[in-house]
Amino acid sequence: MGLYSAVVSTVNERVFRWKGSVLVYPPVLLVGLIVRFTLSEKVIDNIRTNIFPEDNTFNIIFANHSFQIFTILWLMIFFMHVLKDFTRSKFQSLLPTAIQHTHDTVPFKSKSIRAWQLILCFFLKYSLTLASIVGILTLRHYIQETYGMNISGHYISIVTLSITIIWETRSSISDADILELENSDGLDKRTLLIYAFLSGVLLLCASILAIWLLVLFVTAVFYHTAVEKLIGLIWGYVTPLLIFHGLSYLNIDP
């Protein structure tokens, strides 16, 4: 119990609460390029052909099906937000935090209005994110057909989806909402199940983010030119920046 609690708290702090977590992708690209230019072309081709072919199972599951994985995680994050908001009276702040969260929801709003606000916001972010990626990938295909530049689709989609998950998870749950399991003996079973779900979603999201990070590293080493990957990386940051800051500016983000 104590070990699990420590792992959850560490993951929450290092992956979701730390603002620099979304800046890990440029260093991954840089390290991958260093490895690529360090190894000979013969070694690169041999490893790519025998270990990391383009149709390997790992790539097919976690890269080619990244939209489906994102959809599942997005729904889980949504339910995590719902549980946090609408069962808040059952919560206890068991982790010591420098800033105490008051947990005061939007006053003078009924739960039904709050629920529709959450549904609208999550639907908008989900739709805009996927639509933007599809649009950028369509433009990428046009550029490839017209100019012969094969911009990395992995960097476009995975970086966009990863940053979106990190930011949404960060805004959906706080340090005070993470259960410290070794002090949970006095809580009822229903509350324990809620906290177990919250921590499980955090660990699952962190695991997928780590796998996607590995996919990006493999791409950086074995596929595309440096310019093609750099452009994909930049485009991967554009979509979440525009969506999250745009909705916040329009006061739509709950």
Describe how the helices and strands are arranged:
Elements: H1 2-17, H2 25-38, H3 41-50, H4 57-62, H5 66-86, H6 111-147, H7 153-172, H8 189-222, H9 226-249
The averaged pLDDT comes out at 81
Question: What form results from the Cα inertia axes?
Answer: globular
Structural class: mainly alpha
Helix content: over 70%
Strand content: under 5%
Largest sheet: number of strands, sense, barrel closure: none
The beta-strand count equals 0
Report the order of strands and helices: HHHHHHHHH
Number of helices: 9
How far is the first residue's CA from the last residue's CA?
Answer: 33 Å
Gyration radius, in Å: 20 Å
- Uncertain residue ranges: 89-109
Number of domains: 1
GO molecular function, one term: coenzyme A diphosphatase activity
Keywords: Endoplasmic reticulum, Hydrolase, Lipid metabolism, Membrane, Transmembrane, Transmembrane helix
Membrane topology: Multi-pass membrane protein
Subcellular location: Endoplasmic reticulum membrane
